[in-house]
Design brief:
The longest helix is centred in the C-terminal third of the chain and has 42 residues. By secondary structure, the protein is α/β, with parallel strands linked by helices. The relative contact order is 0.11. The chain has 17 helices and 16 strands. The strands form four sheets. The protein has an eight-stranded parallel β-barrel. A three-stranded antiparallel β-sheet has the order 3-4-5. A three-stranded mixed β-sheet has the order 14-15-16.
């Protein structure tokens, strides 16, 4: 065999090895996708001891078009972060607010005196009949959230809306999804999609109530002990997940808001909640293997299990932060937020975090510190809430009682109720909490400072600035930097708020994550492997070739 033939065979062998490695990776990736489509769910035992086996038939046939969607804006978890392109693309951190009070009224923040939604429905139905009562609620819903509200959200640089929903207007008497309510949800999701805003579907009011609070629609909580209520809740989520399955605008399913249970079920938390969480998870996965599932903790990260314990995949843990102790004391509120970071680190779940609800009351420095900490830790967040009726800093937009008077469900006539609820639109009845609005806009997108007329700094005197409505949008918050605490005192470095007039270029900004893009890494590994193989082949082939050449020359000399 001559030198050229030998070297040629060796090159072919090296190329075959490289090709085999690439082929093996591709087949593994393909098989993983196929395996994920074979879903057989054995649901956990219900309260009466029965079990049900759910099998998805013909759900994944001819899903090529859908997988194209999953490869664009579709979110999935990747360790402690969210990524688009079905979990293989860029890191996405969700920052936004909640559409609170729209599908489920709460008297403390909405124009009603009803103790809960179920009482409001029962009372108005008893007084005016079902058709008229539903007409009145639709007047309210049509006013409370309109197309202009989506524009307001987009202008805030928010990329997510958490949508609290209720079984009270979603399920009919036979437990099926009502087409009229589902059409409203579809409209909401479509409008968000137009503006590249994600939607988290949040079951705020489940059949039987998961906490007995006014925001669950009922004052009595029987969900975790009543099999019928559990079956209805499971059916609701299976139908809803089946409807939105494959929709890239849906960021995830928030299965139960604040699932405290009744007083006996709150301590120790988890004995009745976690088994039902698992049952809900498996039921949703039977129809939708792709969307993120969110579990709402009560209240600490340390109260939640390791997801591997239940074999939960593509999940996110959600926490609600309300530091009721000394809400006007900025130092106390800072320590409260710090304690949440410590608890999350202690829990060590290594999955994405959503701060699904929070408020920092009226002190702007408290808000700024909390948002900075959330962003620094890569946590997603949604404030509570977008708009409120005469509740100050609880809403980004707030109304006065004179502009949006409360309805008396017991005495107001149908005409008066209609008139009052028709005034609940944001444009005519509400005013921005301008300080809070500006801060949220900056913290949702650090590059927006150039368009912000107000100057922001990390540390003004803690008792100096209070959030107010009806303020001049061009007013300065403080007059001089001499009044600020040191950067070291607050434990942060630099300021995002000095950027109002001279923002840094995007290239100078730090990366959101130390992790490189997966596709880039794969390409780099393949290229590096190929180069290494070629180098090794060269190192082996050259001496071998020289040796063959030497032997050939010696043979030629001997022949002569």
């Amino acid at each position: 065999m001559n030198y050229k033939n030998c070297f040629g065979v060796l090159k072919i062998a090296i190329l075959m090895v490289v090709f085999f490695c690439i082929l093996k990776y591709s087949l593994t990736h393909f098989n993983t996708k196929i395996a994920s489509m074979e879903t057989v769910i054995k649901a956990a035992a219900l309260e009466d001891g029965t079990k049900e086996e759910m099998r998805v038939e013909e759900v994944y046939i001819n899903r090529e078009e859908e997988f194209k969607e999953l490869d664009t804006r579709f979110l999935k978890t990747d360790g402690e972060v969210l990524r688009n392109h079905a979990g293989t693309g860029e890191i996405v951190t969700l920052r936004g607010t909640s559409a609170g009070g729209w599908q489920l009224m709460e008297a403390w923040m909405c124009p009603t005196n009803a103790p809960d939604q179920k009482t409001a429905i029962d009372t108005l139905t008893g007084r005016f009949g079902k058709e008229k009562a539903e007409e009145l609620f639709k007047v309210y819903e049509s006013a409370w959230w309109q197309e202009a509200d989506f524009d307001n959200i987009a202008e805030l640089n928010f990329n997510v809306l958490r949508l609290p929903i209720s079984y009270l207007n979603l399920l009919d008497e036979e437990g099926r999804l009502r087409e009229d309510t589902l059409a409203v949800y579809d409209w909401f999701v479509q409008e968000c999609s137009k503006r590249e805003i994600y939607v988290i579907l949040d079951l705020h009011a489940a059949p039987g109530s998961q906490n007995g609070r006014d925001h669950s629609g009922s004052s009595e909580s029987i969900l975790f002990t009543n099999s019928k209520a559990q079956e209805l809740t499971i059916s609701l989520w299976v139908q809803l997940a089946g409807h939105f399955q494959g929709n890239p605008t849906i960021a995830g399913y928030d299965l139960l808001n604040e699932p405290e249970g009744n007083e006996e079920e709150r301590a120790p938390w988890g004995d009745v909640q976690l088994p039902f969480f698992d049952h809900l998870y498996r039921a949703v996965r039977s129809v939708d293997p792709d969307h993120i599932i969110l579990f709402n903790a009560i209240w600490e990260p340390t109260d939640m299990p390791d997801p591997a314990e239940y074999e939960w995949d593509n999940v996110m843990y959600e926490y609600h932060f309300y530091g009721w102790n000394r809400i006007e004391d900025v130092t106390v509120q800072r320590r409260f937020i710090d304690s949440k970071v410590e608890n999350n680190n202690r829990a060590g779940h290594k999955i994405p975090v959503l701060v699904g609800e929070f408020t920092m009351s009226d002190k702007l420095p408290s808000w700024e510190y909390a948002l900075h900490v959330f962003n620094e830790n890569g946590w997603s967040w949604t404030t509570w809430t977008y708009k409120t009726d005469d509740m100050g800093s609880w809403g980004i937009y707030n109304s006065k009682a004179a502009a949006t008077p409360k309805v008396n469900i017991d005495t107001d006539s149908a005409e008066i109720i209609k008139e009052k609820w028709s005034k609940a639109d944001t444009k005519t009845g509400f005013t921005r909490n301008q300080y809070l609005y500006d801060l949220l806009k900056v913290m949702a997108d650090e590059h927006t400072g150039a368009d912000n007329l107000r100057k922001w700094f990390h540390n003004f005197e803690f008792d100096e600035v209070t959030i107010r409505t009806d303020t001049d949008a061009k007013a300065e918050v403080v007059s001089s930097k001499e009044t600020y605490s040191s950067w070291e005192d607050i434990g942060t470095a630099g300021t995002i708020t000095d950027w109002a007039e001279d923002p840094p270029s995007p290239k100078s900004m730090p990366e959101k994550s130390g992790k490189a893009d997966r596709k880039t890494l794969r390409i780099a590994v393949i290229v590096a492997g190929t180069l290494m193989a070629c180098f090794i082949g060269y190192v082996i082939a050259v001496p071998f070739g020289k040796h063959i050449g030497k032997r050939r020359k010696e043979k030629q000399r001997n022949e002569h």
